[in-house]
């Protein structure tokens, strides 16, 4: 049974999430503030944490940083804040995904399932991955249809394809592909992602696989 720790300072939301998750055979623990969350994480040893950023004692981003000091447990962030910077900070601190309040419970459950699948032990990823009508061979570094990619395009594409469904923050992509000194050069990403879509997506103006999460980053949708 998958163990989930839910952290939020709204008692009604905690109860609703607990009811929904228990009904789907999750084992659930609750925490109403950041301090309790850190203690519960150590004692309950959850397989996944659902964490609200707006906590009364410790900011949610600090909780993520505290957790990442000793555990790699997947973290799905909840945020009711209008701006995107808090969510970006949470992702850069180590959160795995985010859901904006108010949210549909089915969306949250889908994100929980996806993050749990990615964290579970699994077989080696396939070397060949379909993107629309194209087949990308990560081992051979080839794309069907005689599509040619530059080395930078390959690094970006491989980062996304190796993490299917996962939101990769702009900072992570820039740091891993170009280096730490380029962490704020988001125009690089826009340019290269547009090139990848033109080469791989059936309709680059309406991408179905190389998805932009505005202000956050990008994800590969298989």
TrEMBL record:
GO terms for cellular component: cytosol; protein-DNA complex. The modification 4-aspartylphosphate is found at residue 52. The keyword Oxidoreductase does not apply. Its main location: cytoplasm. Transmembrane segments: none annotated. Residues 3-116 form the Response regulatory domain. Residues 119-222 bind DNA. InterPro entries: CheY-like_superfamily (IPR011006), OmpR/PhoB-type_DNA-bd (IPR001867), Sig_transdc_resp-reg_C-effctor (IPR016032), Sig_transdc_resp-reg_receiver (IPR001789), WalR-like (IPR039420), WH-like_DNA-bd_sf (IPR036388). One of its GO terms (biological process) is positive regulation of DNA-templated transcription. Keywords: Cytoplasm, DNA-binding, Phosphoprotein, Transcription, Transcription regulation, Two-component regulatory system. Residues 119-222 form the OmpR/PhoB-type domain. CDD domains: REC_OmpR_KdpE-like (cd17620), trans_reg_C (cd00383). This is DNA-binding response regulator. It comes from Planobispora rosea.
